[in-house]
Amino acid sequence: DGGITQSPKYLFRKEGQNVTLSCEQNLNHDAMYWYRQDPGQGLRLIYYSQIVNDFQKGDIAEGYSVSREKKESFPLTVTSAQKNPTAFYLCASSIAKNSPLHFGNGTRLTVT
Amino acid sequence: AQSVTQLDSHVSVSEGTPVLLRCNYSSSYSPSLFWYVQHPNKGLQLLLKYTSAATLVKGINGFEAEFKKSETSFHLTKPSAHMSDAAEYFCVVSPGGSQGNLIFGKGTKLSVKP
Predict the structure, then answer these.
(1) What is the DSSP letter of B41?
(2) pLDDT digits over A95-108, tens only?
(3) ω into A8 cis (within 30 of 0)
(4) pLDDT recorded at residue A1
């Protein structure tokens, strides 16, 4: 079955450490996205990529970094510069920009 | 500017009664509109989409939505709620052409009482 896999499901880190969230898709989609979800705030776009080796900042990119070396993979690094990193992170993909999104099941990151 | 407003943050219904989740949008272009559902600690799943064909759109699990351009609305309905419908629902607008990215509403949490 095609889909998006995010790992791990739960992640705990100490403040000041960088952490990388994994996202892999086997849907052969060109576009991939990272969203952050906080209670009552909906989804906010962190980064997106429409093609391998290219990516753009979303609305809340500060304190985050990404890479897109392979079509299937779009890892997100939460750096120590992110002031409030504790959140639920969702990865998604689509055939093209602004087409319907397919989501992974998310990674819940807790930083203490 | 493009925007989307979900008018209720929380809706509570009894099992077997109708569901109405309200969404208004603002778009300078002919938008595409979507409804997604999210169960606790899960990703979002597409319920239905409007892309300028029929104004009444049928989705999965018995949900449907009607696009009303004059009211700039895209409300989600279901005739009879089931316990499994309890979840959070997001209205999403895709601005026309290459005008920015998808815009998510803040979500409506649906509770279903037995």
Answers:
(1) T
(2) 987 788 999 999 99
(3) yes
(4) 60
Place of tokens 């815009």: B103
Chain B: closest CA distance from residue A40 (Å): 6
How confident is the model over A30-78, as pLDDT tens digits?
999 999 999 888 899 999 999 999 999 999 999 999 999 999 999 999 9
Query: Chain B: nearest CA to A108, how far in angstroms?
Result: 8
- Cβ atoms of B56 and B64 within 8 Å: the answer is yes
- Over residues B33-62, the mean pLDDT reads 92
Nearest CB to A100: which of B42, B49, B95? B49
Choose the closest CB to B41 out of A45, A58, A106: A106
Q: Which chain A residue has its CA at the smallest distance from B94's CA?
A: A98
Closest Cα in chain A to B90:
A42
A112 touches chain B (CB under 8 A): no
Q: How far is A53 from chain B (nearest CA, A)?
A: 19
Q: Where are the beta strands (DSSP E) in A1-112?
A: 4-7, 10-13, 19-25, 31-37, 43-51, 54-57, 64-66, 76-78, 87-94, 102-103, 107-111
pLDDT of residue B99: 57
Alpha carbons B18 and A66: distance in angstroms, whole number: 43
- The torsion angles phi and psi of B83, rounded to 5 degrees, stand at -55, -35
